[in-house]
Amino acid sequence: MRGARALAERGDVDGSRLAITGGSAGGYTTLAALAFRDTFKAGSSHFGVSELESFANDTHKFESRYMDHLIGPFPEKRQLYRERSPLRAANRISCPLILFQGLDDRVVPPSQAEVIVEALRAKRLPVAYLAYEGEGHGFRRAENIRRTLEAELYFYGRVFGFTPTDRLEPVLIENL
């Protein structure tokens, strides 16, 4: 965030059009940046964690202790998990967001995206959600990878008021 602000202050980027994107832990970073800071004006979360406590309880065995090293052991540090969960601060998100999710994801279950989508719908913020049947954590099918990249570009075009040069399939953006 400091880097993005510094680039805007230097005039290298348009500070009114800063966007953040990330997948998995980067998706969490996107959601957390939008929930806890006001640097970015739009975001894109690819299979990101929105609620840390339920992630600690719901993810598969391989990832189940991942957060212990980043936040602390669960449930002993439950309060810290709650404080750092973007969903619990969704009322502070104030910009458009697009989310991408594999419906067969066992690392970050679809419910992680769906709860944040519902929270933004309730706030009447611009939100888009693309979920893919047969995809897990990270997309493998070429058509879904392409659709995701094009949908993200389309989303930014609509949110920031530019027209991409390529013809892109539209994305339903609620509340825009």
Features of this protein?
single chain, 176 residues, alpha/beta, Rossmann fold, four-stranded parallel sheet, 7 helices, 4 strands, 40% helix, 12% strand
Examine the secondary-structure arrangement and name the CATH architecture: 3-Layer(aba) Sandwich
CA-CA gap between termini: 25 Å
Write down the overall geometry: globular
Residue windows where pLDDT falls under 50 for at least 5 positions: none
Write the element-wise H/E pattern from the N-terminal end onward: HEHEHHHEHEH
Strand runs, count: 4
Largest beta-sheet details: 4 strands, parallel
Give the helix level as a range of percent.
40-55%
CATH class: Alpha Beta
> Beta-sheet strand percentage?
5-15%
CATH topology: Rossmann fold
Average pLDDT over all residues = 92
> Whole-number radius of gyration?
16 Å
CATH homologous superfamily placement: Alpha/Beta hydrolase fold, catalytic domain
Spatially, the strands of the biggest sheet line up as: 1-2-3-4
Kindly give the count of domains.
1
Number of helices: 7
